[in-house]
Design a protein that fits this description.
The chain has 809 residues and is an alpha+beta fold. The chain has 6 domains: 65 residues, 2-Layer Sandwich (Phenylalanyl-tRNA Synthetase, Chain B, domain 1), CATH 3.30.56.10; 118 residues, Nucleic acid-binding proteins (OB fold (Dihydrolipoamide Acetyltransferase, E2P), Beta Barrel), CATH 2.40.50.140; 205 residues, Phenylalanyl-trna Synthetase, Chain B, domain 3 (Phenylalanyl-tRNA Synthetase, Chain B, domain 3), CATH 3.50.40; 70 residues, Phenylalanyl-tRNA Synthetase, Chain B, domain 1 (2-Layer Sandwich); 206 residues, Bira Bifunctional Protein, Domain 2 (BirA Bifunctional Protein, domain 2, 2-Layer Sandwich), CATH 3.30.930; 88 residues, Alpha-Beta Plaits, CATH 3.30.70. Helices cover 25% and strands 29% of the residues. It contains 20 helices and 42 strands. The strands form 11 sheets. Strands 3, 4, 5, 6, 7, 10 and 11 form a 7-stranded antiparallel sheet that branches. Strands 27-31-32-38-37-36-35 form a 7-stranded mixed sheet, with helices on both faces. Strand 6 and strand 7 form a beta hairpin. Helix 6 crosses helix 7 and helix 12 crosses helix 13. It is elongated and about 120 Å long. 35% of the residues are buried.
């Protein structure tokens, strides 16, 4: 909401207070200020000019040589490139030595050999945004009214030296989404009186529109109040200059006097209005109802919208003519040929308006106010005011009746509190007279005494309904800076970390020790990416009201976001990326009633393991490098479990030949932890990555396994010994199969098993591989003899031959 200080000064006397002070005071009393801007402050020597002649430039097809009277005697010769400049116009002229937008200085000079003493300006060159410049002047200069006094300062004529305070209104303070609401706020803050005219509505209430309009409301829950006013014989044209300027300062593009009046009233009252071309209402009826599923409405932006039963529509008795509270319909749009205007002033169910606006992406000044609430007591007045303005500035005649249905309960809300309650909540020692002063400044009628008082809340402050709201109002107006600061008397107890917190920290430290950088990625993702990478049977959780389509779903895995981070870094020449994240994922499971969340650990590694140096080549990554990282994490987790990997060929977006599921075995049960593997080449191409490896495991599942009891043993007194076994096995026999067979067959002091050689080649044969293992033995109580070792190795050898068809070499 952009507030003009000149406009607000008409409602409450704050013109003698600097805009910066107003902004600071409002920020400290609960309404955040985004900034203060003054378009006219940097402008200089810009005047009204009268175009006396326009000739073609002798050396440029798109330039004109103009003689312009600027009130200084002889006309100024100015070269202008605007396509819409013409004789007789009143225009904006920047004289030599003037300053325009961005402090640009205009000098006397020559354009294509022709002298030019100044510049004819557009509104954009004065500082107005292109989005608010009237469309008729969007590609050229702005033409002033014919009564503009030649030679007068444009800064004064257009009231440009006017600070604009931009407010960032929170949902609970929608009353400040209007000039009148803001005026009441400033009056309370500075203890001043508001001065506002009110349009009488009793005359309209005495009669209806008769046969001119039939009004009916299907559901008063969706449309609790609807007022319709008829203004006849209007002339659609440009609105008066002062109104256009006020709208542009507020960030709204002027269109014509009818539409501009509805927007002007919206800014002043905070009441959204809509103007129908009455003659285009086929049945001379207004009927509000819920849309039918699949019903089509062409809105003012000429887009056909497919409606659903959540949308409130305004119909002509049969067909939709407007999307209630959001946008009007194209078929009843005000045009230059419109003569009779029907004004809508209504109240709609905020929940339906919010859903409709977000569904169609139609966030507007009207939908914003309809979503957050309006002053229900001034709905009829705002409509009557708009009708009055149309009579004044469009030459229309206001029909003395109105059509209305109003089912609102306007009984004032009363809230009871006490002095002790207020002071107890704020930690203050305010007196009852100080409390009375606060509510007097707010213009809230108050009765009672210190033990119990009752505050009557005006309809313009619909955010106040409970005693805690009164506490907030007292704190705001009394001054947050006056409330004493004190710390609660709490005895500090160091309780340390929980086992779960310690476990997560341990994994963080371990990943960092392995050379990985931690990242914290966004928890929301888009519809296109939500199904990337394996997620098991988890279904993505969709937000009802997302910030954008790119952030519509809660992520079901961490790896997808890590790939985005890897892509971002490699695109900026950070080719070797090793990153990880410990965070939660969210999902619906097929048999769950509510969404679930689970903490995962995921890592992505791409690039080289080591770059090329003067004495060694670059070392590329492979599957086993990433497997070693994951194995280290599993081993350091200190769980009483064994881990194994199962090759998996059909995991989504993963390489079919270099991917495995990760499992833990404990107490005769297998627990699925996650997966490990290489990103599928086509998926890697989508992310502009080369060979990329990743894993993702459930930390909660891993943490849930029984913890291993760590005991310290003395150093062995006796030396160990080792034996090597080399064998040829079928290609499908895995390392895990061999380890399991050896461990099961060995019965005497086997301490460790190491794979030290793997060979595939011509001498082995197709479908075969040679693997060599070292078996370390250790007996802490005695020296191992060759006989004992030979006996154990024989048992291992026989088991490998019998169970795995191994050929011992």
């Amino acid at each position: 909401m952009k507030i003009s200080q000149q406009w607000i000064d008409e409602l409450v006397p704050v013109g003698d207070i600097s805009a910066d002070e107003l902004a600071e005071k409002m920020s400290r009393t609960g309404i955040e200020v985004d900034g203060v801007e003054n378009i006219g402050a940097g402008l200089k020597k810009i005047v009204v000019g009268h175009v006396e002649s326009v000739d073609q430039h002798p050396d440029a097809d798109k330039l004109h040589v103009c003689q312009i009277d600027v009130g200084l005697g002889e006309p100024y010769q100015i070269v202008c490139g605007a396509p819409n400049i013409a004789i007789g116009q009143k225009v904006i002229v920047a004289l030599p030595g003037s300053r325009i937008k961005d402090n640009v200085k205009i000098k006397k000079g020559k354009l294509r050999g022709v002298e030019s003493k100044g510049m004819v300006c557009s509104l954009g060159e004065l500082g107005f945004s292109e989005n608010v410049v009237p469309k008729a002047y969007a590609d050229g200069i702005y033409v002033l009214p014919q009564d503009a006094p030649v030679g007068d300062s444009v800064i004064d004529y257009l009231a440009l030296d006017d600070p604009i305070i931009e407010l960032d209104i929170t949902p609970n303070r929608a009353d400040a989404l209007s000039m009148r609401g803001t005026a009441y706020e400033l009056a309370a803050v500075y203890d001043k009186q508001v001065s506002m005219d009110h349009v009488p509505t009793n005359d309209f209430a005495d009669s209806d529109l008769g046969d001119a309009l039939r009004l009916s409301i299907e559901s008063t829950n969706q449309v609790p109040a609807y007022y319709a006013y008829l203004v006849e014989n209007v002339q659609v044209k440009e609105s008066p200059l002062w109104m256009q300027v006020r709208l542009m300062k507020a960030g709204i593009r002027p269109l014509n006097n009818i539409v501009d009046i509805t927007n002007y009233v919206l800014l002043e009252y905070g009441q959204p209005l809509h103007a129908f071309d009455y003659d285009k209402l086929a049945n001379k009826a207004i009927h509000t109802r819920m849309a039918k599923d699949g019903e089509i409405l062409k809105t003012l932006d000429e887009v056909e919208r497919k409606l659903s039963s959540d949308d409130i529509v305004i119909t002509d008795g049969e067909n939709p003519v407007a999307l209630a509270g959001v946008m009007g319909g194209f078929d009843t749009e005000i045009s230059n040929d419109s003569h009779n205007v029907l004004i809508e002033a209504a109240c709609f169910n905020p929940s339906n308006i919010r859903k409709t606006a977000r569904k169609f992406g139609l966030r507007s000044e009207s939908s914003l106010r309809n979503e957050r609430g309006i002053n229900q007591a001034t709905i009829a007045e705002a409509g009557a005011y708009a009708a009055q303005l149309m009579a004044e500035y469009a030459g229309g005649q206001v029909n003395p009746g109105r059509a209305s249905e109003d089912h609102l309960d306007l009984t004032p809300i009363t809230v009871t509190a006490s002095l002790d309650y207020i002071n107890g909540q704020l930690g203050t020692h305010l007196t009852f007279s100080e409390i009375e002063q606060v509510f007097a400044q707010l213009d809230f009628p108050m009765t009672g005494n210190a033990e119990q008082f009752v505050v009557e809340v005006p309809s313009r402050r619909w955010d106040i309904s409970i005693p805690a709201d009164l506490v907030e109002e007292v704190a705001r107006i009394y001054g947050y800076d006056k409330i004493p600061a004190s710390l609660p008397a709490v005895k500090a107890n160091h309780i340390g970390l929980t086992p779960w917190q310690s476990f997560k920290r341990q994994n963080n430290r371990q990943m960092q020790a392995l050379g990985f950088d931690q990242v914290i990625a966004y928890s929301l993702t888009s519809a296109d990416k939500k199904d990337h990478l394996p997620s098991g049977d988890r279904q993505a959780v969709e937000l009802d009201f997302p910030m954008s389509d790119d952030r519509r779903y809660m992520r079901t895995n961490l790896a997808q976001a890590l790939l985005d981070v890897a892509q971002y870094n490699t695109a900026r020449q950070n080719k070797n990326v090793a990153i990880y994240e410990v965070s939660r994922v969210f999902s619906w499971r097929q048999d769950s009633e509510l969404p679930e969340d689970e903490t995962h650990l995921a890592a992505v590694w791409t690039g080289n393991k080591a770059d090329k140096t003067w004495d060694s080549p670059a070392q590329s990554l492979d599957f086993y490098d990433m497997k070693a990282v994951l194995t280290t994490i599993l081993d350091k987790s200190n769980r009483k479990a064994t881990y194994f990997f199962r090759a998996k060929e059909d995991l989504k977006d993963m390489h079919p030949g270099q991917t495995a599921e990760v499992w833990a075995h404990q107490d005769n049960q297998d627990f699925y932890l996650g997966y490990l593997g290489k990103l599928h080449p086509s998926t890697a191409d989508d992310y502009d990555l080369k060979d990329t490896f990743l894993f993702e495991i459930s930390l909660e599942t891993l943490f849930g396994l029984e913890e291993k009891v760590v005991t310290q043993s003395p150093l062995p007194k006796y030396p160990g010994s080792s034996r090597d076994i080399a064998m040829v096995v079928a290609e499908e026999v895995t390392h895990a199969d061999i380890i399991a067979t050896i461990e099961e067959a060995s019965q005497d002091h086997l301490h460790a098993i190491y794979l030290f050689d793997l060979y595939r080649g011509e001498n082995i044969g197709s479908g075969k591989k040679s693997m060599a293992y070292r078996l370390d033995y250790l007996d802490p109580e005695a020296t191992l003899t060759d006989d004992r070792l030979a006996e154990d190795v024989d048992k291992v050898t026989q088991a490998l031959e019998n169970q795995l068809n191994a050929e011992i070499r």
